[in-house]
Write a structure and sequence with these properties.
- The complex is a heterodimer.
- Chain A is α/β, with parallel strands linked by helices.
- Chain A contains 10 helices and 12 strands.
- Chain A folds into 2 domains: about 160 residues, P-loop containing nucleotide triphosphate hydrolases (Rossmann fold, 3-Layer(aba) Sandwich), CATH 3.40.50.300; about 35 residues, no CATH class.
- Helices cover about 35% and strands about 30% of the residues of chain A.
- In chain A, strand 7, helix 6 and strand 8 form a beta-alpha-beta unit.
- The relative contact order of chain A is 0.16.
- Chain B is mainly α.
- Chain B has one domain: ABC transporter involved in vitamin B12 uptake, BtuC (Orthogonal Bundle), CATH 1.10.3470.10.
- Chain B is built from 14 helices and no strands.
- Chain B is globular.
- Classes of the chains: A alpha/beta, B mainly alpha.
Chain lengths: ~270, ~325
């Protein structure tokens, strides 16, 4: 069981506040989605939760232990992080790419131990990459690359998985697949936090939602209770409807009429 | 199983390079203005003494310098290409070589070189360090394109200052000395130069060899590498100090020798699955092979009139063109 607790996170850049007093909790077994408009501070929040960026104020703790007490290696073994649009810069094979996820637990010198080779094998199988293992990672399609990156992130068996915009640039099938996989990883017992723009995916797959508005926490709680037309209108300035369909919840939006009127009659 | 095949290909590449190095090394000891036969070294007569003199005091230090300088250029090219994730990076394109050259030129210009033999390599080291710091400071945070642009800006500055030194040289002989040194050569070197530069080069190489695993993680970009526990500041420091030491000392002894650092990693990269850490040793060997071969060609085929640095530049530039054309084809 892993608990991640952030209290009073504040980040300022050039006198402008990016995050202001954001507090949140996430637990293992849950898929926590961070939602909010462009520039709401989602990526900054994820970088801070991942320990890559230090907040100007506030603390983060994992199981009661403050994040800054972890060494780089300890933290790397504990949590995996995928940035927006992760890329591989050299045409290394998919197998090698996935193996890079083991960097924090590799012995200092020498070849890959047998036990770790088996983990790579398992990750390739779990993410349907066995047929691609020798292919250069730079030649993968967007959907395949996103699977390979997820495999890279979980091959080291971290407790916490933090992913920034995992569905950006993916077609509907692969976006669904990515969201399903994150949900499945949470169901396995991992603590999963991801920022998502597709609110229907959030409504269907996330168990918990954290909503950011202009760097402030707008709401957080179970996905089913939080995602309301009112909240989405506040966050995105659009009229939204959240309806239940046979396939699950569906979030639809239209331009907000009142906001258009406001603009016309200042 | 596939990892075993990769492992084998590594051994195969290393074996080929070591055989080439041995063959070229033997040729380098035996060929030149005086052609030697191995059996002459054991002769008790005057011819034997002469052969031993040529071998031990002229050819052997030259061979050792070629190995050290070629190796450090090949290695630093591989590290800098891995660090910047740019196939065009090398000590030359990042301004390090020209910084070291400026240091050497300063040592000659101010007459320090004639008083202390160690002045050229030491100022070469300092120049390389300053250039590297300038390049990284200027290109920081702007990605690899910014780094390459910063490198060419720093190179321009160093070249301008070298031109200034040539322009203001007290007499034509000083200008001639500077320009001759700049052309790069490992001819007429003695053991003292080996002892002078060797320790710095070896220390630089040792630091560069420590970057392997971090460079691998960096194939995923800086954010992912950091999330995997890589200390990017330490990595930059190792690459910076290692390159400045190795290339600074190498340039200090031999003058500016370009393109070995650019070409060597490209020769071995496709054979080794593109993984940066697997390139380091083969690229070091390939750099030594290239420099040794270039030295032999200038010494034997073309004759002593052509300087080594000029030859590597002439041969290396078309390779640079080819790389640019290939990159342009791949660009969207």
């Amino acid at each position: 069981m892993t608990d991640l607790v952030a209290t009073g996170l504040t980040v300022r850049r050039h006198g402008k506040s990016i995050l202001e007093q954001v507090s949140l909790q996430a637990h293992s077994g849950e898929f926590t989605a961070i939602i909010g408009a462009n520039g709401a501070g989602k990526s900054t929040l994820l970088s801070i939760l991942a320990g890559l960026l230090g907040p100007d104020e506030g603390v983060i703790s994992i199981d009661g232990r403050s994040l800054h007490l972890f060494t780089r290696k300890q933290l790397a073994r504990h949590r995996a992080y995928l940035p927006q649009n992760p890329r591989c810069e050299w045409p290394i094979s998919v197998e090698r790419l996935v193996a890079l996820g083991l960097t924090p637990i590799l012995p200092a010198f020498g070849e890959l131990p047998e036990a770790l080779s088996r983990r790579i094998e398992a990750a390739l199988a779990q993410f349907d990459l066995l047929s691609r293992r020798s292919q250069p990672a730079t030649t993968l399609s967007g959907g395949e690359l996103s699977r390979a990156m997820l495999a890279r992130a979980v091959v080291g068996n971290p407790d916490i998985l933090i992913v920034d915009e995992p569905t950006t640039g993916l077609d509907p099938r692969h976006a669904l697949d990515a969201a399903q996989r994150l949900r499945a990883l949470a169901a396995e017992g991992k603590l999963v936090i991801a920022s998502l723009h597709d609110l229907t995916l959030v409504a269907r797959y996330a168990t918990r939602v954290v909503a950011l508005d202009g760097g402030r926490l707008a709401a957080q709680g179970p996905a089913g209770e939080i995602l309301t037309a009112e909240l989405l209108r506040g966050l995105f300035g659009v009229d939204a409807s959240v309806s239940l369909t046979p396939g699950g919840p569906l979030v639809d939006y239209l331009p907000a009429r009142s906001s258009t009127n406001r603009r016309q009659n200042p | 199983m596939s990892s075993r095949i990769l492992h084998d290909s590594r051994l195969g590449v290393a074996a080929v390079l070591i055989v080439a190095l041995t063959a070229l090394g033997c040729a380098s000891l035996l060929c030149g203005s005086v052609w030697l036969r191995p059996d002459q070294f054991f002769g008790a007569d005057a011819l034997g003494a002469m052969a031993r003199l040529v071998l031990l005091d002229i050819r052997l230090p030259r061979l050792v310098l070629a190995l050290l300088i070629g190796g450090t250029l090949g290695l630093s090219g591989a590290v800098l290409q891995g660090l910047t994730r740019n196939p065009l990076a090398e000590p030359g394109t990042l301004g390090v070589s020209s910084g070291a050259a400026l240091g050497g030129v300063m040592a000659i210009y101010f007459g320090l070189a004639s008083h202390f033999a160690v002045a050229i390599p030491l100022l070469g080291l300092a120049g390389a360090g300053v250039a590297m710091i300038l390049t990284f400071a200027l290109g920081r945070g702007g990605g690899t394109v910014a780094l390459i642009l910063a490198g060419s800006a720093v190179t321009s500055l160093m070249v301008a200052l070298i031109a200034l030194a040539l322009n203001l040289a007290a007499n034509p002989y000083a200008a001639f000395e500077i320009s001759t040194w700049l052309m790069g050569s490992i001819a007429d070197k003695s053991w003292s130069q080996v002892w002078l530069a060797g320790p710095f080069i070896l220390l630089g190489c040792a630091l560069l060899f420590l970057t392997g695993r971090s460079l691998d993680a960096l194939s995923l970009g800086e954010a992912q590498a950091e999330s995997l526990g890589i200390n990017l500041e330490r990595l930059h420091g190792l690459a910076l100090v290692g390159t400045a030491l190795g290339v600074g000392a190498a340039t200090g002894v031999a003058g500016a020798i370009g393109f070995v650092g650019l070409v060597a990693p490209h020769l071995v990269r496709p054979l080794l699955g593109y993984q940066p850490s697997r390139l380091l040793i083969p690229s070091t060997l390939a750099g030594a092979v290239l420099l040794l071969a270039a030295d032999l060609v200038t010494r034997i085929v073309i004759g002593p009139g052509l300087k080594l640095g000029v030859f590597t530049a002439l041969v290396g530039t078309p390779f640079f063109f080819w790389l640019v054309i290939r990159l342009r084809k791949r660009a969207p």
